[in-house]
Amino acid sequence: MAETALDEQAVVEVAATADEANDKDDATGEEPTHKQSALININAEGLPQASVQCFCLLGDDRLLAGCSGAKNEIRVFDDQGTYVESFDLPVAPEAINIAPDGTILAAGEGELLRLSADGKVLATAESPHAAAIRDAKEEVRKQTIEQHQEQANMLPQMLEAYDSAMKELEKQIAQLEEQGEDGKDQLRASKEMMESYKQAKEQMKEEYGDNAKELTEEQVEEMVTSAIQYKLKVASISSDGEAVFVACGMPAGYGYAVWKLTPDFTDGKEIVSGLSGCCGQMDVQANADGVFVAENSRKRVRRFDPEGESVCDWGKASEGIDGFGSCCNPMNLAFGANGSVYTAEDTTGRIKRYSNDGKLLSVVGAADVVPGCKKVSIGVDSTGDRVYMLDITRNNVAVLSRVNPDPKEPLANATSASGNFLLKLFGLE
Fold it and tell me: What distance in Å separates the CA atoms of residue 126 and residue 128, rounded to the nearest whole number?
């Protein structure tokens, strides 16, 4: 069995700091309540290499990681980060979650699954949006050709933008190299970003350069097939106990929709459409308070009732703690005690905690994740003392442990002087 992935000493040190902080009575929430203390390596020693795509927490705080690689599976880790077992899956997992009855919901490649807590497949069904996408093939074809031409026309500007970004990164890397040990973590992240920029630039030249402007019928068909496969992906799956909610791309266009199904995956109907998301992400989480959506491209959280009627929304574009910064955020959501809503931001790794009607309760902290527009799934343990964030690039899950108690009141002024301390903490000032 693989060894524990948690840094035990770091956890002990954080716990000691938390004990000291809990002796204070004047907690206001203006300082982070949690600090990163450990990592859970999904490719722990003794396990075959795999790419983690998603994760969630069971009620006993076991962690489930949806992985693809030599085989499709869910890897199970205990609350200390030790690998326990794996469940094989018939599809590559794109989203997983826990239903209120303790069963596991999974989705991938246009399929929905319900599993028992020990990994037995109880039910499977095609995602409700799959048939609609196949019926819209001609619309997808038209959209694919138009999009390819637009990208080809914009290629010079896009290549120039990549060159400009890489020049700035080169300067940053040179400065960090002079800092030695002090800048090693940021240096690693900057080098990883540089490599991703180079790969993206070469891919764009190959796909949209002079040799690729005129598409053959075979190329068009391949692109349409690829577009349909992409649209079949399920961005998220969740349940309030009465129904299952699935977020996925709309058949035509670039928006996202939320579908509602019965617990046995029947009677699917679209209840929300036209959501704006980036990088294939649209996280939807449901509980007794409603259906919550991280509409990342519009920098807000939206709350709907189970029939898709809007209840409220909150958020704005801001690098300060009173808003959501970077490219497209919040990217992911999770629920904590008393119906609180946790939000996750990708590039900064920042996590915040809100009431279910959008009052900012506290800044939880920031996980060290590779920057970029991507999924940063989060989970909260049963006590609220540990919060988890997925780093999909490094195939690990960061663990943030409590160092300060939760505040007694919501943050009244997120842009106060103490708020400036948080901007410095996250490198945003």
Answer: 6
Are 340 and 353 contacting, i.e. CB atoms less than 8 angstroms apart? yes
Please report how the helices 184-208 and 137-179 are oriented relative to each other, as an axis angle in degrees rounded to 10: 150
- pTM equals 0.77
pLDDT band at 211 (very low <50, low <70, confident <90, very high): low
Of 294, 289, 287, 288, nearest to 272 (Cα)? 294
Q: What is the pLDDT of residues 96-119, one digit of tens each?
A: 999 999 999 999 999 999 999 999
Give the whole-angstrom CA distance, residue 172 versus residue 391.
22
- Summarised one tens digit per residue, pLDDT across range 372-426 is 889 999 999 999 999 999 999 999 999 999 999 999 888 865 544 344 444 444 4
Contact (Cβ atoms closer than 8 angstroms) between residue 331 and residue 294: yes
Helix (H/G/I), strand (E/B), else coil: 305: coil
Q: Write phi, then psi, for 138 (nearest 5 degrees).
A: -65, -35
Say whether the peptide bond before residue 330 is cis (omega within 30 degrees of 0). yes
| Contact between residue 22 and residue 63 where contact means Cβ atoms under 8 Å apart | no
> Which has the closest alpha carbon to 380: 417, 340, 324?
340
